[in-house]
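Hey,
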Amino acid sequence: MKFAAIDIGSNSIKLVVVDAAARDSFAVLARKREIVRLGHETLLKGYISRDAIRRAAKCINRLRAVADARGAESIVAIATASVREANNSERFIQKMEKKTGVRVAVLSGTEEARLIGLAASQGCSNRGAATLNIDIGGGSTEISIFRKGKPLTLLSMKLGAVGLTERFLTSDPPSLDQLDQLRREIRKALERPARELHEHNWDAATGTSGTILAVNAALRFQAVGDNGESDKRKSVIKFKDLKKLNAMLAVMNTTQRHSFGLSTRRAEIIVAGATVLEETMQALGIDSLRTCAWSLREGVIIDHLRSRVNG
């Protein structure tokens, strides 16, 4: 069975097309990701503009064409924080179905955490161990703890790289006062989740999605080897390294961060996203975490396959 999953996020819209052979087994036929920045202004104003709706529809049509070309029999599309928080989310859903033929389901923060954690636990964790996963998106941050494919706790916070950048980091590079305000906001939002998470034990920590993968790429770029190439095998983010990296990125402008191995769009929001990661690791006492390429799209696929078997 071939089918596709589309993840409509606050920063990017992503597609994966798979050929599923069994309940927990699938081969990836295609992956595609486009920066649409649906959360731009939406997370501040609580309203998805006509221009953002048009951009999203055009992107989804392109992704649907890829899925069709790969023989996908069905498409599962989900939306996260930007659509979840918008007061015209129902209009967005109607427009996407009318313009693309794709029906979009809006996930709650808890459900988003569950699906991401499901993917990380299957794709990047020792199933017998309790694994805490951190996922920093454009509009929210999700934290989960899974053991043997089952959730032990699921949390979602309104801390995202796009939303925080637009609220606090209005100059380039940001001022010290802006950075202080950003950290205060993140620490305040983490107070309750940190207390709740400290009641649980976990054996290992993983990190998923664009911000964390970009941080890892920047750390690899920084650790250039003797041959002039970054160590692509390194998939661990250490807190001490992250703290040093953030101090460097915070005083750079977007152009300088781009030359640090980041895409231009990612360079615009990496300071806020990486600060969320630093503050979260500090609040939870995490010294290091392993990055994981599987995230929400893969979680949607795994969940879809399981529901078909169980249904």
